[in-house]
Amino acid sequence: MTHQIYAIRYGHLERTSEHNFLGGDDHATPMPLDYYVWVIKADGRVIVVDTGFDAVAAQRRGRTLIRPVAEGLAAAGVEPGEVRDVVITHLHYDHAGNAALFPRAQFHVQDAEMAYCTGRAMTHRHLSAPFDAENVADMVRRVFDGRVEFHAGDAQLCAGVTLHHLPGHTLGLQAVRVATARGPVVLASDVAHFWANLERETPFPIVADVPAYLDSLRALRRLAPSLDHIIPGHDPAVLARFPRMPGVADVVRVDLTPLSGAAA
Ligand SMILES: [Zn+2]
User: What is the 190 CA–ligand 1 centroid distance (Å)?
Assistant: First the structure.
């Protein structure tokens, strides 16, 4: 079973490197973030991984919305209204917005994430800041509508697609491992924002549990045959390194072999 995987960039933020590593960085060099959602396709089945933020959230947080998520999905041949499975890696605002786009989907979430973003930890502004309460409330409403499938740790979504609980950045963060023609590819989401977080074994500064984060970086490497098989959550190099969909901006195929030099 081999799958196609699309990384769809929808947002952007200029920043410098000292903001991307816990403890800072010796050199304040430009190191922007890109924002992605991902699509897995096989045998007519479509799985969307994360749902991004919308124009309102972008403006409120000073992010650039390059293209609405619905348009990015359409560019990759996906009609959001028809999607049946959405994996939410974690509920931070940049991964769990656009609630109205997926009226027919079942949402896949870790038990630990729902407990985290609805519980005591959110009384700390430092921990709640990357969440939008409305996104969390939308997920709670879906629970009552019977549209959430909870997972506790690793789980198989379908043949060749597995979920892996890799906490640290949030307590219920999960990555998605996908069988492809070049071997297993892991959509790491924010287990690692950049390949550099993996290479330096240094967390991104938004971190709920540092030891767990570092263990999750190791676990991530064990899930993939090489760094090229790990797709970080916010690295602009993803867009530069993988083959583009012909004639389509900001969409690349990460199931295909990278075009340029190894990640590490
Ligand atoms: Zn993120």
Answer: 6
